[in-house]
Each structure stands twice: as structure tokens, then as C-alpha cells.
UniProtKB/TrEMBL annotation:
Native species: Schistocephalus solidus (Tapeworm)
PANTHER family tied to this protein: EUKARYOTIC TRANSLATION INITIATION FACTOR 3 -RELATED
InterPro entries, alphabetized: JAMM/MPN+_dom (IPR000555), JAMM_MPN+_peptidase_M67A (IPR050242), MPN (IPR037518)
Gene Ontology molecular function, alphabetical: metallopeptidase activity
Protein name stated in the entry: Lys-63-specific deubiquitinase BRCC36
SMART domains per UniProt: JAB_MPN
Coiled coil spans: none
MPN domain span: 10-147
């Protein structure tokens, strides 16, 4: 994991890590995704919690999230800020790479660059899951943080898991709520998948998908 220079550092709370990992483990053959919620400082991003998002398609090599889902994150961040009595916002995005390396694809880097055009501090996290180690019965999980250069080259981020100092009870309430929202995503995706058999539905769905990664 040293093929590129370290840049911005990232702190992820254990609670946010648990939510993302649980979300990633819900689908072994399909990628999942969501957004990171927290705050930025000079050279550091703190990820307090995350918002798992419903996908418009279930594929092994990419994940698409609708504009409606992304827009809804603004209201959810306001709700989280109110509950925690501390301002937070969307600071990045995450997705999974089941059975493959955690390194970002060219589509991941382009998506990241698009986000950075709106916020230069925006970060990306990739979870590599269900990786079987060679000549070993053990599986491994890898987490990589990254940004994209103007030429779509990867900038590696230093990511560490660290507890939130002086955590209030409201923080744990928020974490539990976001963790439980994973099941809502799965339920809504099953409903969407059933509705996808309706005429012209797939065409209308493709028009609203703008969060794409591989």
C-alpha cells in the first residue's frame, strides 16, 4: 500500500467503521456505497458516522446511487447535527470491492475528481472484502483512503481508526440509527428490484444515476 505518496490524513471512528464494514458484508457479489459524515480541519478529515445509501442497480463491478438519495443526505446531516448538537456535513463517500483489491479503478478516480471539483477536501474510502489469502484459510479486509489528482492519479490518504473524545450519549444514538438504516437500504432495494420489471422503468432509473464507481 505504498505505491503513492501519503497526503491528507483521515480519522474514522470505530462506530463509523463498523457501519461501513457491516454494510460491505451484506453483499458478497455486489458493491455497496454510501457517504461519510463528519468535519474537516486543515489537513485532516474526521469521519464521525456514515449514511448507507440505496443503490439503483446491483452489480459486481459498480454501484450507482440516484440524485434523490444523494440530495437526501443534506437533510440527514442536519438531523445528525441537531442530535449531536455539533455541525457535521458530508465529507466523502465509501464503497466496497468484494473479492478484489481495494485500489480505486479509473471510474472511481473520475468520480472522486468530480466530487473534488465541488469540495477539494472530499475523500473516498474503499473496503476490500471477502479476500482469501494465498495458501491460508484466512480471509482479510483492507481499507484504503484516497483522493484524485487532476490527471486522475491516486493520492493515498493515511487512515486510522480512533474513538471520538468525550463522546456523548447522542453520538451512540446516531451511530445505532445509522447502523440500523442498512436494513432499510436492503428492503428498499428489494422493492426497487421488483419494480424494475415494469415497462420503461430501467430507462427512467438510468437518467437519475450520477454516483458511479467500480
Amino acid at each position: 500500500l505504498t505505491r503513492c505518496m501519503m497526503e491528507r490524513s483521515v480519522i474514522v471512528t470505530p462506530e463509523a467503521y463498523q457501519i461501513m464494514l457491516t454494510h460491505a458484508f451484506t453483499h458478497e457479489r455486489e458493491e455497496i456505497g454510501g457517504v461519510l459524515v463528519g468535519y474537516n480541519e486543515a489537513h485532516e478529515t474526521s469521519v464521525i458516522t456514515v449514511i448507507p445509501l440505496q443503490r439503483t442497480s446491483q452489480l459486481s463491478d459498480r454501484v450507482n446511487i440516484s440524485e434523490v438519495e444523494l440530495a437526501g443526505c443534506i437533510d440527514k446531516c442536519e438531523e445528525i447535527s441537531k442530535d449531536m448538537k455539533s455541525p457535521v456535513s458530508v465529507v466523502g463517500w465509501y464503497h466496497s470491492h468484494p473479492h478484489i483489491t481495494p485500489f480505486p479503478s479509473h471510474v472511481d478516480l473520475q468520480t472522486q475528481l468530480n466530487f473534488q471539483s465541488m469540495d477539494q477536501n472530499f475523500i473516498g474510502l474503499i473496503f476490500s472484502t471477502f479476500i482469501q489469502q494465498a495458501d491460508s484459510p484466512m480471509q482479510m479486509v483492507a481499507l484504503v483512503g484516497f483522493q484524485s489528482t487532476s490527471t486522475q492519479k491516486e493520492k493515498r490518504l493515511n487512515v486510522r481508526i480512533q474513538s471520538l473524545p468525550n463522546s456523548q450519549l447522542s453520538f451512540y444514538h446516531v451511530s445505532c440509527r445509522q447502523w440500523k438504516s442498512i436494513s432499510d437500504c436492503i428492503k428498499d432495494e428489494l422493492i426497487h428490484r421488483a419494480d424494475n420489471s415494469l415497462p420503461d422503468h430501467e430507462a427512467s432509473t438510468s437518467k437519475c444515476s450520477n454516483f458511479q464507481c467500480e
